[in-house]
Amino acid sequence: MGRHTIQQGRRGTEALPAKIGTEPHWVFERPGQTLELRRVPSTDGVTLEIFVDAGNRSRSYFFSELDTLVRFQSDMEQFLLKTGWSFVRFSPDRRTGAERRKWPRFDNDRRRWWTDGHVWAAQS
Question: Which terminus of the chain is more exposed, N or C, with fewer CB under 10 A?
Answer without folding.
Answer: C
